[in-house]
Amino acid sequence: MKTLLKNVTGICVLLFVVLAGQAQDWPGWRGKNRDAKVDNFIAPGKWPDGLKKIWEVKVGLGDASVSRVGGKLYLLTEQDGQHVALCINPDTGKEIWKTPLHPSIALEGGGASHPGPRTTPEVQNGKVYTLGTGGELFCLDAGTGKIIWKNLAYKEVPKFYPSMSPLIVDGMCFAHLNGHDNGTIVAFNADNGTIIWELKGEPATYASPVLMTVDGEEIMVFQTETDVIGLSKKGDLLWKIPTPGEQRFYNSATPVIDGRNVIVCGQGIGTKSFKIEKTGNTWSTSENWHNSELGGNYNTPVLNDGFLYGHEARMGKAYCIDTKNGELAWSDDNSNHRFMATLNLGDHILSMSANGKILIFEANSEKYNEAAVYNVSDTEVYATPLVTGTEIYVKSKEMLTRWEIK
């Protein structure tokens, strides 16, 4: 019996090592499906007291998150007054290529306190797509960094500058460009940058679009400053739901897709769930529920086994909502930060706080159960971390750091 147990234990350890070593592609904002789900993470039996720092490199200014595809990291930053695209070796932190893109525009107002780009590169089909603070859209070769095409025509920007990450679907690159007054959703040919169609009059904000499928039909879901809208890939407006933000707070949370339901949240909005349906050629929406008390401001919640985990707008307190009815399952009493970036690790939830701390708690709908807290940066962190296997990549004000759970 002891021999059997020893063999089983050895197999489990080996399985953990093998699975943890299989790096998951994370092609852009919130991963492959933009749902922040990390597929290959396996929680340790006992959480360590601290994380092991593998390497740390200075990459430049910005709040853009890092992407990973084919064993390479991709990042958009600002160096010496220029936006630059970077490709980095995840094993060593060494630069594979660097491509200067364009001079950075001078930032004004509240946005000036966050120098550098905010948008996560989208890596698809051997190409890297980036969006700069001045609305500059670039497409580069993922292997060499060579610029394939660019578009600099949409020069108006939202008040706090673009943070939307382009969406690539069926050979098209979709981006919400210009500003609050003249927002324009544009479909580009992803290979050469030719404009396929434009939809004008939708005020731009800071959320990234997502893709959902209803009755076999793909719909692109955009959160604008005033509404959440569904578009066909041809640019037809299928439906529109009013979601105005509160006072000076703008919509920045990415819509969460739950089958045929769209969940939106924000300060002043709370959290709402809508059902999307089609009868014949007519689309309709209906509200499933509305939790007016809880709504993230500068963070997007994650969906895990029928429950929504996130952080409320004012104090960053963790919460859990039952998506069947919108009722609060639990709310933690501890305050965090209004800026929280949340990932779904399966059995656990990871939240990166802007104060440089990683918070890990159980995906438990019964109660809040904290597993670990790690300090990973002495400067503020506004980028969403990248987690694959046992690796955690954190982009702080100027540094990119690889941490390991050991």
From TrEMBL:
Residue span, Pyrrolo-quinoline quinone repeat domain: 86-331
Name this polypeptide is given: PQQ-binding-like beta-propeller repeat protein
